[in-house]
Amino acid sequence: MPLLSLFPTRIEVAQLKKRGLESFNRDIIDVCESLRMADTTGQRWSAKHYTGGYTSYGSHDQMHRISSTFAALEKALNPQVKAYALSLGYDLRGRKLHMTDCWVNMMAGAVTHGLHLHPLSFISGTYYVQVPRGAAAIKFEDPRLDRLMAAPPKRNDLSPRERLHFSVKPKAGQVVLFESWLRHEVPPSFTVQERISVSFNYAWTA
Predict the structure, then answer these.
(1) What is the pLDDT along the chain (206 residues), one digit of tens a residue?
(2) Would you say residue 136 lies in a domain?
(3) 73 occurs within a structural domain
(4) How far apart are the C-alpha atoms of 126 and 107, rounded to whole Å?
(5) Inter-residue contact 11 to 178 (CB < 8 Å)
(6) Most exposed residue of 2, 77, 112, 179, measured as fewest CB within 10 angstroms of its CB?
(7) Whole domain around residue 37: which residue ranges?
(8) What is the pTM of this model?
(9) What b-and-e string marks burial along 25-58, b requiring 16 or more CB atoms within 10 Å of the CB?
(10) 151 φ, ψ to 5°?
């Protein structure tokens, strides 16, 4: 019997749209900077949970509902998320996908985002607005890692599909999509310029 490769984990990295990305990203940056200045609740939450950076996760986590710029981002993401879900084999007949959460992340210096997943969601992702040279990649973890127990370490020359971790270095204007159960983190970058991104979750309804 041949060796079988089962239960793939699929991550998609794609351009958000073909035209107008620079001006669109500038609009998002303007909203992000204005939000950070006014969001005292988010500043306090970030100081406790996101040391050295800013995120609206603890204060404004539905930006697509309060900002026309983020509503435009949602509109651009919708067909990509649907196509990604269909490529995973999910049956969407009679079902609708919708964005449930959408928040801002502004990271510079040694700011990190610890290992986590996105519970109660279906598809998650991040849109990268500004990515300075040297910014850290988003690092994904093999979902079986906590079950390997007595396994020895893996070789360093393995292909990406065989490794226990895989890092994606997106560019500004790109979207990274993944299933919400997949754990991931962002290591420190030690960059002066901020990396600005927008994270989001999607759910489905009948």
Answers:
(1) 789 989 999 999 999 999 999 999 999 999 999 999 999 999 999 999 999 999 999 999 999 999 999 999 999 999 999 999 999 999 999 999 999 999 999 998 889 999 999 999 999 999 999 999 999 999 999 999 888 888 899 999 999 889 999 999 999 999 999 999 999 999 998 899 999 999 999 999 99
(2) yes
(3) yes
(4) 14
(5) yes
(6) 2
(7) 12-150+162-205
(8) 0.95
(9) bebbbebbeebbeebeebbebbeeebeebbbbbb
(10) -75, 145
Give the CATH number for residue 145. 2.60.120.620
3-state secondary structure of 122: coil
Say how far apart CA 6 and CA 2 lie, in whole Å. 12
User: Six-digit token pair at 12?
Assistant: 């998609």
Residue 4 lies in a domain: no
Structural domain includes residue 91: yes
